[in-house]
Amino acid sequence: MRTQTVTPDRSPLTPERESFWYLVHAEWTKFRTVRGWVVAVLVTIVAIPAFAFVSTSRGNSCAASSGAGSASAVACPAQPTGPGGEPVVDAFEFAHQPVTGNGTITVQVTSLTGRAPVVPAGDVSDGPPAGPGGLDPWSKAGIIIKENTLPGSAYAAMMVTSSNGVRMQWDYVGDTPGLTGSVSASAPRWLRLVRDGGTITGYDSADGTHWTLVGTATLPGLATTVQAGLFAAGSSDDGQFNTMATGVFRHIGLSWPATGWTGTNIGGPNAVPVLGTLRQNAGTTSVASFGDISPAAGAVYGGGGQPLQDVLAGTFFGLILLIVVAAMFITAEYRRGLIHVSLTAAPRRGRLLAAKAVVIGAVGFVAGLVAATLALAVGMHLLHGNLQWPVSLLTEARMVAGTAALLAVAAVLAFAIGTIVRSSAPAVAIVIVVIFVPYLLVRPLSAGGRGGGWDLQITPAAALSVQQSVPRFHQLIDSYSLQNGYYPLAPWAGLAVECAWAAVALALAFFLLRRRDA
Questions:
Q1: 3-state class (DSSP) for residue 205
Q2: Domains along the chain?
Q3: Residue 335 backbone dihedrals phi, psi, to 5 degrees
Q4: H-helix or E-strand containing 363?
């Protein structure tokens, strides 16, 4: 008698079913069949742009008005804007004369001194230390070619500074270094500007004989007749003009016909003039002034605009919803005992964890991408003419993609924590604490000048920096604080911190999922 082996009746795992993307599709099917989760994601997409209406209509300190002609109406002061539309500080004493066509201005700077800033009693701010002679580090004096004497007009300048050596600066945001060290009678600095059409080239020299190229600036549309001359500016610290800088000049050379110097106080922020002096005596010219020539960023900004990042304030509400959904994506299976079914269908636990992470991360990214795109579109429309700083398309793209990534990584983090603790409430609480609490703790303190320390550098809250729309400038002394829209880390560096948290949480979740019973 012949016997026959009986094979158990079991559905074989086909290559298609063993595919990782088949597992991803299965997890996506689970997700979209739970109506509450889908609704929560849709509410996230709607809520973020909806908050844009609230954030852009909240008003500001100088724009509030109770009606035309009302005694309580507050008019917004005019903020000078530069050639690129950016708000600027353009306040200094200018000893100038009109020049036409191409030419050169050369000068020897023998001294840069200052009057120490006035520090209010009880001020414990930890701003940049004063430079030599009581000057701010960016106190400056030098030569400048400027389109006219109106605040915000195009310019290029060569200058000596208190603590940052020789610099060439142009159109408020451009800056490049030259000779290092401080200027003095024993170590003077020679500066030169050469105009060729709309191109201004800067040179410096330690002896007036051997010249070194510092930089070249192109000023589109520069008028044929411009103003050329000498200037000084004490620099601004937190928007305050506390320091007067005095530059002493000798051997002033012009290739244009000389017509004599005229001293003009270029207006300061909000059209407030900044007083300065021009003195000429026996071959020496001195110019002294408070003020600055710089972008108006951070606390220096005195206008009534809002940063574009305000329109993404609804991200916090969207994050809460997404964190809850992401945690429940795994904890619901533990609560209902369905995790056994999932692990039976996908016995390779690491693949199951990865598939779920891909699904919830993709859901968060798409939701964030759509919501941020809508929010910026709404915000750009509502803030038209009231935008604090012009935002490039590249910055807008970074804000949209960064917000999408912020939500996606937060969802993965919540999912991983949910896998570790196996319960929705603790998982949601943990993620909200590490993302929201650091931000809420730092923001009130930043009004006093704190930009945010370890709180916003080592926690997932650092990722919020991807939404920053206002730039930071090294040549401007200011408190770049959260209150003024600044984060301590660069945008993508902040997002990398959140990614590191998610990666560690996923690794721990994988370790625990493999070691313990479902």
A1: strand
A2: 19-61+304-515 (no CATH), 88-300 (2.60.120)
A3: -65, -35
A4: helix 349-382
Whole-angstrom CA distances from 265 to 146, 171, 300, 488 are: 14, 19, 19, 36
Asked whether the whole model's pTM tops 0.85, one would answer: no
User: For the purposes of burial, counting CB atoms within 10 Å of the CB of 257, is it exposed (0-12), middle (13-18) or buried (19 or more)?
Assistant: exposed
- In this structure, are residues 152 and 80 in contact, taking their beta carbons and an 8 Å threshold? yes
Q: Tokens for 251?
A: 């051997």
Q: Cβ–Cβ contacts within 10 Å for residue 205, how many? A: 19
Please enumerate in sequence order all residues whose Cβ is within 8 A of that of 49, keeping only pairs 6 or more positions apart, or say none.
314, 371, 374, 375, 377, 378
Q: Does the structure show a pLDDT above 90 at 505?
A: yes
For tokens 């996506």, name the residue.
28
> 449: Cβ–Cβ under 8 A, 6 or more apart, which residues?
125, 126, 127, 238, 479, 481
Q: Are 219 and 147 in contact (CB under 8 A)?
A: yes
Strand, helix or coil at 26? helix
Beta strands in 243-390 (DSSP E): 244-254, 262-266, 276-281, 284-289, 292-295
> What phi and psi, each to the nearest 5 degrees, are found at residue 212?
-125, 135
Residues linked to residue 105 through DSSP beta bridges, in sequence order: 193, 254
* Alpha carbons 267 and 291: distance in angstroms, whole number: 9
SS3 433: helix
3-state helix, strand, coil in the chain (%, to 5): 40, 25, 35
* Secondary structure (3-state) at 511: helix
Q: What is the DSSP letter of 414?
A: H
For every residue of 457-479, DSSP letters joined together read TSSGGGGGGGG--S---TTSB--
Q: Which residue do the tokens 């000023």 mark?
A: 219
Q: What is the pLDDT of residues 25-79, one digit of tens each?
A: 999 999 999 999 999 999 999 999 998 887 776 544 454 433 333 334 444 556 7
Evaluate whether 234 touches 139 at the Cβ level (below 8 Å). Answer: yes
Query: Closest Cα partner for 485 from 305, 310, 339?
Result: 310
Lookup result for tokens 């003039």? 273
What 8-state DSSP symbol labels residue 166?
A: E
Tell me: the pLDDT tens digits for 237-270?
Answer: 666 777 889 999 999 999 999 889 999 988 754 4
**Spacing of C-alpha 420 from chain mean position:** 35
Number of C-beta neighbours around residue 329 at 10 A:
25
Torsion angle of alpha carbons 479, 483, 486, 489, nearest 10°? 90
